[in-house]
Amino acid sequence: MDLGDAATETPDSLSHENVFSPSVSEPKHDFREELVIRPLHSGDIYASFQFRTLWKTNFRENKVSHYRLFPKSLGQVISKFSVRELHISFTQGYWRTIMSCVNGNSFICVELEATDHRFLRYATLPREIVCTENLTPWKKLLPCGSTAGLAVLLKSEKLFHSSFHSQAVHIRPICHDWECKATSWELRQTVNVVFDRHISAQGKREWSLFKMFSRTLTEACPLASSSKIYVDITDSPQGEQLELSPPTSLLSQAVALGDRRTFSVYDLKQQSTFGMTHSLNLLIRWKSNEGDMLRPLLHAERYVAGYGLHMGEIHTLMYNNHPYRSFPVLLLESVPWYLRLYIHTLTVTSKGKDNKPSYIHYQPSKDRVRPHLLEMLIQLPPISVTEVTVQFERALLKWTEYTPDPNHGFYVGSSVISSLVPSIVAMDTNMTQERPLFSSFFPNKEESTYFTRVYTEPLLVNLPTPDFSMPYNVICLTCTVVAVGYGSLYNLLTRSFQVEEPSPGLAKRIANVIRKMRGVPPL
């Protein structure tokens, strides 16, 4: 499971016959949790949590009032709004191993028995302006919450201090066989995080659960049917480069994202895993400092070109690193309305030649109503860089539509690239055996491909910005004039005038004093 593809998300809409349960004889309620840890060649470490809640019920036909493992808050949403699929993800940070990740939020909601794009909803938030903590409500959806099991490790201070972290909620109906005679509802909650050794490990190539999460494990979730930790030792099967403590004799092989990986397995449902201390603090230590960064078969990047505040150009680069196979990708672009695209300038080139897309769908924007929507199906040649460019014109917003910091720029959502990437090894399509959660997320009938989705960086675009100091100056001048003019007029209208008599002279005052002493009226 290469980290370049670890940030991929689920498909917008899995076809009804292509989703299934890995086991036929599962109970009505089932909850499984697992943690995958992969030491990276750079000395950093990647951790992926997956929690799956399975419920054999039908929200559409049956009115459900009793909830056991499935969260009631999500069940009510599915039942009331007839939601077919729901995918929400929150991602922050970048992991630059020749790949790109979205920085922001994405939301996908699908309702359909057959593919009907009228019921498809897609939204993205390139940047979360308000600082909010989304981990606590996310953990409340788990059957054990954060009191037991792997969720104990999810400490917000450590996760949000990492180089890259992503949390997601995926709800979908799954079939029990390829004929899809019986279905269940699956809730998958995932957390992916990358810890930088220079930030979290003081530059040392040594990791432990306590160093990563500031906590250790003492028990599995009592409601979980399976609770396991997988440590990827593919690059060190005999311990040549990695040392695990405590050691484990359980090994497992699984095909994930087109590659066969070897894992050391720690089963938390067995008390022997925790040892005499009744606590598991898994330690991973590198024996050598050598290692090359891996190149994913598919990765992408995007940037804005041009100068000035009138015209610009969006460049999207897609890399196919497969040595001899080409494969198609679906490129989705959602551009805000204030960037007015010139579709006639759209060009797609591969290896210096034009690459005509086999499918193009474009929906123009409406000012202040909807953004541009552009979808293209493009064939990527082997060992190539495919560049998609389109020009745009910046619009002038109303002064009330600017953000409090307009000179910072406006964020544009990332491009979404979906593809069936050729596998290095044959994918396992036998669904009757028990498999890890991470290897059964993207079911596929084909043995030679696997599904992946990559997000590029969000763009930061400057728009024509008026001089907001001029309204300030006008307001100050106007208020001053009004205050002086109105104040003077109000003073004249409300002031009362009195006539004062002149004060008597000194001789007259002395005479009055003498007359007062004699009892004579004053002059």
Automatic annotation (TrEMBL):
Question: Among the entry's GO cellular component annotations, what is one?
Answer: GPI-anchor transamidase complex
Tell me the Gene Ontology biological-process terms attached to this UniProt entry: attachment of GPI anchor to protein
Q: Where is the composition biased (Polar residues)?
A: 10-24
UniProt region (Disordered), positions on chain: 1-26
Which PANTHER family would you find in this protein's record? GPI TRANSAMIDASE COMPONENT PIG-T (PTHR12959:SF11), GPI TRANSAMIDASE COMPONENT PIG-T-RELATED (PTHR12959)
Protein name per the record: Phosphatidylinositol glycan anchor biosynthesis class T
Question: Which classification does the entry list for the species?
Answer: Eukaryota, Metazoa, Chordata, Craniata, Vertebrata
